[in-house]
Specification:
single chain, TIM Barrel, Rossmann fold, Immunoglobulin-like, 3 domains, 6-stranded mixed sheet, 31 strands, 27% helix, globular, binds alpha-D-glucopyranose
Amino acid sequence: MLKKTLFICLMMVSQALLAQHVKPVYLDDTKDMEERIEDALKRMTLAEKIGVIHAQSKFSSAGVKRLGMPDFWTDDGPHGVRPDVLWDKWEQAGQSNDSCVAFPALTCLAATWNGDMSEYYGHALGEEALYRGKDMILGPGVNIYRTPLGGRNFEYMGEDPYLASRMVVSYIHEMQCLGVASCVKHYCLNNEEEYRHQVNVKVSDRALREIYLPAFESAVTEAGVWGVMGAYNLYNDEHNCHNSITLNKILKQEWGFRGVVVSDWGGAHNLDQAVRNGLDMEFGTWTNGLTEGASNAYDMYYLSKQYQKAILEGKYTEKELNDKVRRVLRLFFRTTMNRKKPYGFLCSDEHYQVARAIAEEGIVLLKNEKVKELNNETVLPIDPVGKKILVVGENAIKMMTVGGGSSSLKAQHEISPLQGLQNRLKDCNCQIEFARGYVGDVTGNYNGVTTGQNLKDERKPETLIAEAVEKAKTADYVIIFGGLNKSNHQDCEGHDRKSMELPYAQDNLITALAAVNKKTIYVNISGNAVCMPWRKQVPAIVQGWFLGSEAGTALASVLVGDVNPSGKLPFTWYENLKQVGAHSFGEEAFPGIWRDGKKEIIDEEYKEGIYVGYRWTDKQKLKPAFAFGHGLSYTTFKISNLRAENTVTTDGEMTFKVDVTNTGKVAGGEVVQLYISDLKCSVDRPVKELKAFQKVFLKPGETQTITLDTDKRALSFWDEATNDWKAEPGDFMAQVGDAADNLSCKLKFILR
Ligand code: GLC
C-alpha cells in the first residue's frame, strides 16, 4: 500500500510539474516567425533551398550552416526514441548513451481511453527526444484497425475514428510544447503491410472522411501537428507521399496545414509529383548511401540535384520550392532554431512512472469468472500468499521491445511478465514455477540491437505441453502468457498476419491447461485480436499489450490487485475473420488484386465502406467475442439517469449528463461511452457511432455526474453530393454505457 501511495504522490508531483511546467513560448505562427521565414528565404541560395528539402543521411536533413541553421534530426518512433543508426545504414551505431524508456505501444495508450495519459506520453517521449538531440519524432501512428491481420496495428490507436482522434491530440500537443515536432503517420489509408508499397486503395469518399481521415484531421486542426508523414501506398493511383488529393487538396488547402509533409522512407517515386503534389521533405529514397554512384547518393534524390537541374533548365519556377522551404523554415524556427526549448531527460524516474501508469491503465480485463474452487470468488485478482503459481508461456519471458520494424527500441530495461511477478511476490511466501509451454520466436535482434536472451529450446511441442500440464495439476493458479510477438507475420512492420489464430500451437496448450486447473488465467500479449476457441474453458482472460519497459511490473500490479484494471478495447475482438467487414468481400477487398496480373500495383477496394469494426458487426448483427469498448473491473459500476436539459437542438450541440456509481467494494475507473444513432437518414448510416467518452475514477459507493457533449459534426455524415459534412434534421438517439454492447441508458432527441 505504501508503494501505491508513493506512486500516487509521485504522479501528483509530476502532474504538478506538468502543470507548473512553463510551456516554452515558441515562435509559432507569430508575426515574428513569418517575418523571419521570409527574411531567411530571401537570403538562401538555390542550392541551400534544395539542401533543406531532402535527407543527407538515414535520419537527418541539412540545415543552412551559412545562416546559422543546424542540421535537422528525425527519429523513430511512436513508442520511444530509436537508437542512433549509422549515417547511411539501418544498423545501430553502437552508442552507449541511447538506451531509452520503452513506452507502451499505442494500442495500449488508446485502451486507456484517457487523454491525460496521452499528455504524459507526449511530454515524456518529447523529453527523451530532447535529450537525444532529435527535432522530430516519427509518430504517432493513427491508421485505422481495418483488419486484425494488420501487421502494424500495435503502433496505432484502434478501429474508431473518434477514439483515435481524441487520443492523438494531447500526445502531439505536449511533445510540441517542448519544441519537438510530432510527425503523425502514415497519411493515409495505410491499413495493411504486406503490399504497402504497391497497394492502390479504392475507397468511398464517405469512408475516407468518416473513418480513415478524422484522426489525421484532429492532429492537424486541433493539435497543430508540425509534421505529417505520407504513406507508402497509393490512393487514386498516386503515391501518398506526393498525392494531389490527400496532400494538396485535403491536408494543405482544406485543413490549412502549414507544417511539413515528410515522405515515408523510400516513399517518393516521381520528380514531377514530388514537386507539385505536396511533398516537402524527401527521406529514405532507396539509395545505399555514400557507396552508390561516384558521389553522395543523396544528390540523386528527386528533390535534390535533379530538381535543382530542372529549375535551372526552366522546367519549374521556384514557386513550389519556396513553399516547401517556407514550411521547412517554419519547422526549423519551431525546433532547431527555438531558443526556448527546455532540457531533455532520458530514462528518468518520471518517464518510467509514465510508462508504468499507461501500461496499468491500458491493460484490459476481458473475462473474470467466479469459480467454485475459490468459494465462488472470481479468479482475479489472485491471492498469492502461500500459494504455488505456475507461469507458462514464451511471452512470460520474451523481450518485446526489440523487433517489429521501425518502432524497435534499445530499452534501458524491460521487465518481463515473469520478472514482474517474481519482483511483486517475493515477500508473499509463494512459490513461482515456470514452464515454457511453447516455443515461438527465439531470435532477439533488430538492426544490431540484441535482447541478449537465449530462448532456444529444442523440445517438441507435445513435450512442452506435457511438462506444463504436469506442473499445472498441483498449482493453485496457472497464469499463461501467450499471444503474438514482433516477428514477421505477427505484430510486425512489413508483413501482415496470415491468419487470426494464435501461432505455435498455443490453443492446444491453453486447452490442456484449462482442463487440469480451473484457476487458469490467460494473458494475451499482442497488438491485435486473436481467435480464442477455448474462451469458455478459461475463467479469466486479460489483454496485455506490448507494454514496454514496465510490462511485467504493470501486469503483476493488475493480476494481484494492486491496480484495478480500467482499460477498454480500442477495437472489436472478433470471433474470427468471418466477422470482419474487410474479409467479407473476397480478395479484392483484402489484400487486393494485382493489376493486369503484374506485380506492380495491387488494387484493394474497401468494399465494406464505413462499416469498420463495431459498425460492421452491428450492421450484420454479429456477436463478437468481446465488443469495442469492453473492459471489466474488480469492482462494479452503475451508469444511470441519462438526461439532457433540452432534447431539441438546432445546431447539434447537446449536453448529456449521466450518473456513475461505484457499486462495488474497491476503487476503480470506468469509461462512460456515448454513442449516437441517426434514426432516419437519406443515406445508410451505422447503427451507432462513438461520439463522446469520459473516464472517471470512483471510490466504493461514490457517485459522480458525467457530462458528455456533442456538436453538429457528431451528428453529421459526409455528404458525397455536396462534398461536405451534413446533419439531417430528424430523430436521433443517444446511448450511454460502458461498452458498445452494453449501453444501459437511451435518450431520444431531435435535430431541427
Ligand atoms: C519505415 C516506416 C515509418 C518509419 C520510417 C523510418 O518504413 O514505415 O513508420 O518512421 O520508415 O524508419
